[in-house]
């Protein structure tokens, strides 16, 4: 048996899109357009499937995927990450053999089950029970196989009391429960899932995560697309970051998520913040405006980032310029919640560090917060203060913001409730003592 069950080599997919036509503003022009429309429509139909080499970069051609290559091993759960329009769904449709690539090849070693659209293959007039047989047959299950697993499918879906009700009366959450339950019990070697966790309550999402873990532990492979980074980190071993149809990063899931976050940009007070770099020279909230604090950089596990995770190595680097010669420069910062509630406030007097900076000299201060303890999801703000024991040279309130995003600390598919956990203790344990 081959260890690699999904092999993608130089995969590319192009589509032709429609372009807006010029509107005829005269009666003669409109009549001419009507007469020409049958020939124009025939030409359009031909263009949908015929691409000339000279049209590779035409305005009406887009590349949904371009030279994508990666491998997935048996028993691995790989997460495909990227913004909307990055090419994730196109990639899964090619893997599921719904559409064909323009170039490149895909090698699949094993039986495939895919869940790309909620309730695909369901007939609204049929009952849930009838749709289990219909959908299972579409996915490749035999009637005997469905009969044998029917009770498990029904129990997993949690819609037993509505099983003999037409599916058209189901909510979207009920449909995805039933659809996932059928696909998950197909026992494929390769399971392809696109955003199934976007619908459904927390309890069902937990069941889905557990089922996908079970699938992987049985030696099967899962290709998973989701915008839920907590689920990605809980479930996946490795990840692939897609952007504009190309692979921008591939590696372990934690590094892939960080790379995804680093690609995002935020605009605050007309100041562009990209990859954790904050230009503060002309910040609108400067109170004394002495150009003392020039720039700030933020790092998560030694990588520039705007989004941080509980327990990460959180670091600031702040570039400052002193107003006067000072043998005892005082620099402090406050981290506070979006409701302006301080949670961390430290200066170098507390830590016992002595800074000597000459007038006009530019220095960079490093502030390290290993095992960052804040767990609660949300936006947090940072204030800066520069001066000495007697005078404040510069104060910046709300110098910049960053985001905390929680994940499954214990990797048990049970995310801590942020409402009950402002502070993280990732080393906490619960044990039953033997007498």
Number of strands: 22
Instruction: Give, in spatial order, the strands making up the sheet with the most strands.
Output: 5-6-7-3-8-9
CATH class of the largest domain, anyone? Alpha Beta
Characterize the overall form. Answer: globular
Can you give the mean pLDDT? 78
Radius of gyration: 28 Å
Low-confidence residue ranges: 265-274
Question: What's the tally of helices?
Answer: 9
Give the second-level CATH assignment, the architecture of the largest domain. Answer: 3-Layer(aba) Sandwich
What is the CATH H-level superfamily of the largest domain? P-loop containing nucleotide triphosphate hydrolases
Which class do the helix and strand fractions yield? alpha+beta
Overview of this protein structure:
With 435 residues, the chain is α+β, with helices and mostly antiparallel strands. The protein folds into two domains: 67-261, Rossmann fold, CATH 3.40.50.300; 266-404, Coagulation Factor XIII, Chain A, domain 1 (Distorted Sandwich). Helix content is 25%, strand content 34%. The chain contains nine helices and 22 strands. Strands 5-6-7-3-8-9 form a six-stranded mixed sheet, sandwiched between helices. Strands 15, 17, 18, 19, 21 and 22 form a six-stranded mixed sheet that branches. Strands 12, 13, 14, 16 and 20 form a five-stranded antiparallel sheet that branches. Helix 3 (128-138) crosses helix 4 (143-157) and helix 4 packs across helix 5. It is globular, with a radius of gyration of 28 Å. The two termini are 49 Å apart. Residues 265-274 have low confidence and may be disordered.
């Amino acid at each position: 048996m081959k260890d690699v069950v999904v092999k993608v080599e130089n995969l590319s997919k192009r589509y032709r899109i429609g372009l807006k036509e010029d509107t005829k503003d005269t009666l003669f022009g409109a009549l001419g357009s009507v007469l020409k429309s049958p020939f124009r429509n025939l030409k359009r139909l031909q263009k949908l499937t015929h691409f000339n080499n000279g049209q590779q970069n035409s305005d009406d051609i887009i590349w949904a995927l371009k030279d994508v290559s990666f491998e997935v091993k048996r028993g691995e759960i790989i997460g495909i990450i990227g913004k909307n329009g990055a090419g994730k769904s196109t990639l899964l449709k090619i893997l599921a053999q719904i559409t064909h690539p323009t170039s490149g090849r895909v090698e699949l070693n094993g039986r495939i089950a895919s869940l790309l659209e909620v309730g695909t293959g369901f007939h609204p007039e049929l009952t849930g029970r009838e749709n289990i047989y219909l959908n299972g047959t579409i996915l490749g299950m035999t009637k005997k196989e469905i009969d044998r697993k029917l009770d498990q499918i029904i129990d997993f879906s949690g819609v037993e009391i509505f099983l003999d009700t037409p599916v058209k009366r189901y909510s979207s959450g009920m449909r995805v429960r039933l659809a996932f339950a059928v696909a998950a019990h197909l026992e494929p070697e390769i399971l392809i899932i696109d955003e199934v966790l976007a619908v459904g309550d927390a309890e069902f999402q937990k069941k889905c995560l557990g089922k996908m873990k079970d699938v992987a532990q049985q030696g099967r492979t899962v290709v998973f697309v989701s915008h839920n980074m907590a689920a990605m980190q809980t479930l996946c071993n490795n990840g692939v970051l897609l952007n504009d149809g190309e692979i921008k990063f591939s590696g372990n899931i934690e590094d892939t998520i960080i790379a995804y976050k680093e690609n995002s940009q935020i605009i605050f007070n007309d100041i562009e913040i990209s990859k954790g770099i904050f230009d503060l020279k002309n910040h609108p909230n400067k109170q004394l405006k002495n150009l003392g604090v020039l720039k700030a950089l933020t790092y998560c596990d030694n990588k520039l980032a705007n989004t941080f995770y509980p327990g990460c190595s959180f670091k600031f680097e702040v570039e400052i310029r002193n107003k006067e010669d000072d043998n005892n420069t005082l620099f402090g910062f406050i981290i506070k919640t979006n409701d302006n509630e301080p949670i961390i406030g430290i200066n170098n007097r507390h830590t016992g560090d002595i800074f000597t900076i000459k007038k006009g000299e530019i220095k960079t201060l490093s502030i390290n917060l290993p095992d960052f303890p804040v767990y609660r999801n949300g936006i947090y703000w940072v204030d800066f203060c520069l001066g000495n024991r007697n005078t404040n040279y510069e104060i910046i309130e709300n110098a910049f913001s960053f985001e905390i995003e929680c994940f499954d600390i214990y990797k048990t598919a049970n995310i801590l409730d942020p409402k009950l956990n402002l502070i993280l203790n990732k080393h906490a344990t619960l044990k039953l003592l033997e007498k």
